[in-house]
Every structure is written in C-alpha cells, then in structure tokens.
Amino acid sequence: MKQRGPGGGRSSSGKPAAGEGAGRRPEPRLIRPKIDSAGTNDQSLNALIAADKIAALKLAPVSDETEDRLDRYIALLREWQAKTNLVAPSTLPHLWTRHIADSLQLVDLAPAAKRWADLGSGGGFPGIVLACAMAGRPDARVHLVERIAKKAAFLREAIRVTTSPGVVHLAEIGDNVDRITGPVDCVTARALAPLHQLIGFAEPLIRQGAKALFLKGQDVEAELTEAAKYWNIRPQLHPSRTGDGWIVELTSAERRG
C-alpha cells in the first residue's frame, strides 16, 4: 500500500510539493504486506467447523465411508455458498451439528428405510445427508424435490461428488408425486412450510405406505393444533438431539370433511 504524508505528498494545486523536483531520485516507498483477512477468517471458520464435526459425530455416529462422503459434501457446500445462499451464513460454524447431525437422526427413526423422498431439499438437508448415509445399501434411493434451479443444480453436483444414490427433481413441491416412481419408505421435509401444508404435499406418499418424518422447531404444538383443523392425524413426537426442535412422525393422514 502506498504511504503518503499529509496532503498525499502533493500541494493542493496538484503540482509536485516543495523538494519533489526533477533530477532527484524519489525516496523508496515503504511497502507494507497485505493482510489477507479473508484467509484469516477462513482459518478460524475451519477450526470451528472441525470442532463442531467432532461434537456432531458423537450425536450421530457414522461409518468412515459415510464420513468421507459428508466431508466432500461440506466442502462443496462451502464452495457454492459464496455464490448461492444455501444455508444461513450464521450457521456455517455449526454446519455439522445444526445441519448434518440434525439430518442424520432421521435414519435411527426409520432404520429399515432405503427409499426416501425429501421435499424442498434446498441446500441438501436432510436429503443429501440421507443419500450419503444410504450409499452402499442395495436398492437405496433418495428423491430430492427442489423448485429453484440453482439449488437443484447444486444438489445434482452434490450427488455426483459424494457418489450417493440420489435423484433430483426440479419441480414445484406439489408436483412431486408424478415425478417420483417406485415405492417410498419415508418422506421428509425441513424448514419448508407449516405442518398442515407439508401434510398436503406428502399425503399421496403417506397413502401409499410412506412414513412422514418432518423436522420442526419449538412451535410444533401450535403447528399440530393448526394441522388438526384440516387433517385427522395421530402424530408421534420425537425430541431432536441437536436442539430444542422436534420430529413429527406420521403414518397416516386423512383430510377432514
């Protein structure tokens, strides 16, 4: 960075200041090294994410193969995050606990499930995480339904990079039934819509035998009360391992009158 004295080394008229005449060699300027603040921030974020990963894998242990896939997914997400808002920036230091472990806990609620449908997959939670966990299981498949083209492109790249058994459907959420072929064991959604709307999206799959597992926040009771105005349901609630949220499990849903 150029260093100048008061007035920038020139008079207010823009002419050379006194003493800066022809025939004199200019004094060498002090060049200060630039501090790469972005690099420093990246190093700090890397350390926070590494510590968060340790905590997350205690909450939701996975195989070495799944961990490797998840590492590749996180690296890709951080690369794309710079140009496409996939997760809230404030959650980046807690990617593993806030997003990865939160998604992985669904596997324990449906251990035999191999065919999943994730509605409104967004940045891939829980869909890509489930696909990483399902990799290696015979006949496993995760359908990811996303209506935003940029996010759908990211999801396709995440499936490729992690070599996971997923298929991405660029479609409005309500159109998912026509695009998903074959049986579905579980249908999921996270941060997509109020519960009564989610049930409407998922009901055709539930009717065909799928179990619904919806990740919800602290206001789940209010959402259940509202949903009961439109649907006959018998929900089972599971407390989240990763915070104050809940997982709503449904095995049937019938529209009221």
Keywords for this structure?
257 residues; Rossmann fold; two-stranded antiparallel sheet; globular; disordered N terminus
Characterize the structure shown:
The protein starts with 36 loop residues before the first helix and ends with a strand. With 257 residues, the protein is of the alpha/beta class. The strands form two sheets. It has a seven-stranded mixed β-sheet with strand order 3-2-1-4-5-8-7, sandwiched between helices. Strands 6-9 form a two-stranded antiparallel ribbon. It has helices at residues 37-59, 64-81, 95-109, 127-134, 149-162, 176-179, 195-207, 220-227, and strands at residues 115-119, 141-146, 166-170, 186-190, 211-216, 231-232, 236-239, 246-250, 254-255. Mean pLDDT is 86; it is low at 1-40. The protein has eight helices and nine strands. The protein has a single domain, classed as 3-Layer(aba) Sandwich (Rossmann fold).
Mean pLDDT: 86
Radius of gyration, CA atoms, in whole angstroms: 26 Å
Q: Say what the CATH topology is.
A: Rossmann fold
- Give the helix/strand class: alpha/beta
Distance between the termini: 73 Å
- Largest sheet, strands/sense/barrel: 7 strands, mixed
